[in-house]
Amino acid sequence: MSTERILRKIFFVEILKGLALTFRTLFTHPVTRRYPKEKRPVSPGFRGLHALAKNEEGKMKCVGCGLCGAYCPSKCIHIYTSEGEDHTKVVDRYEIEVLRCIFCGFCVEACPFGAITLSEHFEYSDYSREPFYMTKDKLLANWDKYFAGPKGQRYFENFWRPRISDLTAPEGQAMFKNIKVKDAKP
Amino acid sequence: MNGATTGNLLMDIVVILIKIAVVVAVALLHVAYATYWERKVIGHMQVRLGPREVGPYGLLQPIADGVKLFFKEDIIPANADKPLFYLAPVIFFIAALSSLAVIPFFNSFVVADINIGLLFLFAMSSLGAYGIVLSGWASNSKYAFLGGLRSASQVISYEIAMGLSLVGVMMMAGSLNLSEIVRAQHEFVTGFYAIPQIIGFFVFVVAAFAETNRLPFDLPEAESELVAGYFTEYSGFRFALFFLGEYTGMLIMSSIASICFLGGWTIPQYVTSVLPFLAFVPGIIWFLVKVYAFMFFYYWVRATLPRYRYDRLMAIGWKLLIPLALLNIVLTALVKIALKGQV
Predict the structure, then answer these.
(1) Alpha carbon A31 to chain centroid distance?
(2) Tens-digit pLDDT profile for residues A78-127
(3) pTM over cut 0.90
(4) Which residues of B touch A (CB under 8 A)?
(5) Spatial distance between the Cα atoms of B131 and B91, rounded to a whole number of angstroms
(6) Sequence-distant (≥ 6) Cβ neighbours of residue B343 within 8 angstroms
(7) N or C: which end of chain B has fewer CB within 10 A?
(8) Contact with chain B for residue A25, Cβ under 8 A
(9) Domain boundaries in chain A?
(10) Which residues are CB-contacts of A38 (< 8 A; sequence separation ≥ 6)?
């Protein structure tokens, strides 16, 4: 053993270094966030509680195509539709079992109309299972609650832009109703 | 026996009882806030906040913890040895509390000013080990039993080193009475014994950590190996007794360090000659400052060092600390003979 190593051992240099480190840390600012009082800002595209988007007229955007339910890996979206008076499709029930949802966001990506959204709200604990079974009315109310004003607009523009709005297709190709087809690329 | 002596005796008993009540109440309050302080210090050393929610700055946290422990369900294992199970935490707690009797908190304030104060402290700290061993045995659980066994061997090994480390202090002070030791330090040139007795102080510090089962020697209650060690099966108030006993033990060890090595309630004479106003500060303040500094060192080491392996623990105790303590005794004796010029 070299003299230096013996000296290091006798005077506990390693332990003293460790003690110095912890003592310095004592005066640093703690990284703790005191959660209920101090909330962490939600990142863009956060996947929280579901909401059904409304258009400018306040009507539900969803047309009941069922793509979200088909994509859903945990099969927690249930859609029941019927035929309306002028042969249009009417969404009778749109239900999400939130407790089964894994918040992957596939439904939002799948939706061609930007109708299903995931809000930034994540504090919805409760004592029974019923509040977690989202019906159509509750989902539409969620939109008013969590996407009021320009927030809903920004939601799609900044992050979950519906793919259909970028879609270009040749004139005359079969498309979803009400979606304007942009000019075909040369 | 005439009326006057009976009256004096009663008076003495009343005074002693009041002293005991004051010491126990103040010590337990200190113990409660030692837990708060420990959580704060370790929290900040780990870049956390520590308790903040109960009361301003979390100051009522120890009280909330105490209330919780009092009202918790008291569970006793079905196959436990019931009398010993009841007895063990009481032994542990009583042993820790009775050590408080001989500690001089400031000049001439001590419940029992006995001439073998230091030996009494050793005896009580070994008696506390009985509580641990009995709790391990009586719980009828393998974790508690292993914790008890570990504690027994650890405390016995480190007791020797601790006793020997204080022999140097006894030789320098020429007394086992703790008040006399403090007065002798006040007369001494450095004002405290930690400087000439640096080896003894080092051995004492390490042995005190092992004796109170604190990190890095908390093998009797190693969470990762033994769940909670000897008090695995205890809950509610009985657990609280172990907890209080452990922290009282820390307080006692800090007090011994303060009294035997750091000058107790006095400050060195050369300090008071330079800064005379410091002499008006009550002795209890100096005593508490030294005790708190040592307690802080407990927490500091806990936040820094990992737990030792068991064979390393034994190796440190027997192969390092005991030879060092013996060396310290020999050196102290030789220096004392050389200074006095007589054999």
Answers:
(1) 26
(2) 999 888 888 888 888 899 999 999 988 888 888 878 888 888 888 888 89
(3) no
(4) 41, 43-49, 52, 300-301, 303-305
(5) 5
(6) B337
(7) C
(8) yes
(9) 1-31, 50-166
(10) none
